[in-house]
Fold:
Amino acid sequence: MNETRLCVAVNAPSPLPSSRQLSSFTQYYIRKLLRQRLKMLDSPRLQPLGLERYFSQDLNVILHNAGASQRSTLIEQINTLVQLHLKHQQESHNGYLLAELEQRLFALLGVWLPGAYPLPATQPTLVQEEAGAVFRFFLNGRLRQGIRYGQELYGWVAECLPTAVNGLTPFLSSLAQQQVPFVLTVSSRRYAIWISLRSPGCRQWLR
Structure:
């Protein structure tokens, strides 16, 4: 599978933004999410949270002034998170996923909103399944499915329907507690957990 990859309000869907900068639509969308979260916090005052600049300045300038290393990669990650959020925002069963996407999006921008997210401690890396390159491999006498994401190879260990993602939480927590590197992929038909094939305990999970 190939990698898939706020200022002015717009009504029509925007094309995928440039990987070199955040588009006007992406900035608008981020600001909209920030306002929604501030409303949930019942905190319309921006100054105590240090958020004024996110509404008054170009977010590209903020990222530039922050001197973020590998800024093009950072912008690509932000664009991907916004696209994922747009894709799943109309699905009522995806409250957990949307909150997770927002938390990761704000973290990349350096935004911290106290108490805004009722999420478990486990925060897996979320990617679109199409972003991984699929391959097959043998382990313990069985042909298995894997994906390459970034510089890492992962093996499939579990999946569920999009409507049952909360059922994966105990499994995700167990992986996190044992410090097993993993990713959670998202598609229209399933959520899937994949663990790093370089993890010392991968054979245990891939029995």
